[in-house]
C-alpha cells in the first residue's frame, strides 16, 4: 500500500499569518511531508518555480473568487501542470466539515479538525502518485 510517507511529497503552504503558517508546517512535517512556506503570492510563485510542489495548500482569507484567482496565478506564474492539486483551507463560504471539488484540481475545504484536512491531502497525493 502506498502511503504519503513513501512518497516524500512536497506541499507548498501559502499563508500570510506566521503562526498559522508555522503550525501547519509542523503538523504536515509530522505526517512525513516536505513543506515549503510562502507568505505572499509572489513568494509562492518563486518557490513553485524553483521546486515544483506535489500539492499547494492556500490558507488565505478572502472571497472564493479571489482565492481561485490566486490559484490560477500560481499555476500560470510557475507554469505548473494542471494535475497538481490546490487545496483552499478554511474558506468561510464553505460549510464546516465540507469539501467541494472545483475544476482543474482545485478543492475548497473547511474541515472540522486537522484530521479531515489530513485525509483529503493524503487522498489527493496518493491518487496523484498512482496515475501515470
From TrEMBL:
Signal peptide: none annotated. This is Response regulator transcription factor. It comes from Candidatus Chlorohelix allophototropha. Residues 10-125 form the Response regulatory domain. One of its GO terms (biological process) is phosphorelay signal transduction system. SUPFAM superfamilies: CheY-like (SSF52172).
Amino acid at each position: 500500500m502506498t502511503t504519503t510517507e513513501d512518497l516524500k511529497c512536497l506541499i507548498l503552504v501559502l499563508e500570510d499569518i506566521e503562526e498559522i503558517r508555522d503550525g501547519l508546517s509542523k503538523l504536515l512535517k509530522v505526517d512525513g511531508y516536505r513543506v515549503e512556506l510562502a507568505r505572499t503570492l509572489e513568494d509562492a510563485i518563486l518557490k513553485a518555480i524553483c521546486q515544483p510542489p506535489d500539492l499547494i495548500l492556500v490558507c488565505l482569507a478572502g472571497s472564493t473568487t479571489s482565492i481561485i484567482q490566486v490559484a490560477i496565478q500560481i499555476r500560470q506564474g510557475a507554469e505548473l501542470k494542471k494535475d497538481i492539486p490546490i487545496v483552499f483551507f478554511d474558506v468561510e463560504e464553505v460549510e464546516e466539515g465540507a469539501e467541494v471539488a472545483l475544476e482543474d484540481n482545485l478543492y475548497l475545504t473547511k474541515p472540522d479538525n486537522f484530521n479531515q484536512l489530513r485525509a483529503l491531502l493524503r487522498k489527493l497525493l496518493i491518487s496523484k502518485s498512482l496515475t501515470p
